[in-house]
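fyi for ur records
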Amino acid sequence: MYDTARRVALVKQRVRENTRRRQRCEAISLSAACILLCAALMQTAGTVVTPGQTAAWGVFGAMLLREDAGGYVLVAVVSFAAAVVITALCFRLRSKENRRKDGTHKPNQHEKEEKSQ
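which gave:
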């Protein structure tokens, strides 16, 4: 049998491992979502933008000088909007985790006794 201090230490270690595992899963899923969004935007850019000759060869910014550059602008606006939405969701998730952590992380009676000794 373990004593109370050892059991508390094991529980804290398990909580840290579970938190680390959950954060890793969230990071992987967000990375996958970003890759899928990038692929979707690249596909959209390929279908929206019509091929044509630019005014200056070899200069990427010269594409915006054409009359039909609306596709590039559309993709840029959609990309920016998607980034704003993802950032807002991440902020909301972080604040939700902080509120949950602050609300549930209250020391038990035996933890108070250990700190006072």
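Residues 4-111 form one domain. thats all i got for now
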